[in-house]
Amino acid sequence: MNKVYDLIILGAGPAGITASVYAARKKLAFLVITVDVGGQAALSGDIENYTGYQFITGPDLALKFQEHMDSFGIEVTMPEGAREIVKLGQLIKTVTDKAEYLSKSLIIATGKHPRQLNVEGEKEYKNKGVTYCATCDGPLFRGKKVVIIGGGNSALDATLQMMNISPEVHIVNIASQLTGDPVMIEKVKSSPAVKIWNNSEVEKIYGDTFVQGLQIKQHDKIFNLDVEGVFIEIGLIPNAEFASCLEQNKWGEIMVDCYNKTSVEGIFAAGDVTNVPEKQIIIACGEGSKACLTAFKYLSTHRFLEK
Amino acid sequence: MMEIKIYSTPTCPYCKMAKDYISSKGVSYQNIDVSSDQTAAEEMVKVSGQMGVPVIVINGQTMVGFDKSRIDALLEV
Question: In this predicted complex, what is the ipTM?
Answer without folding.
Answer: 0.71
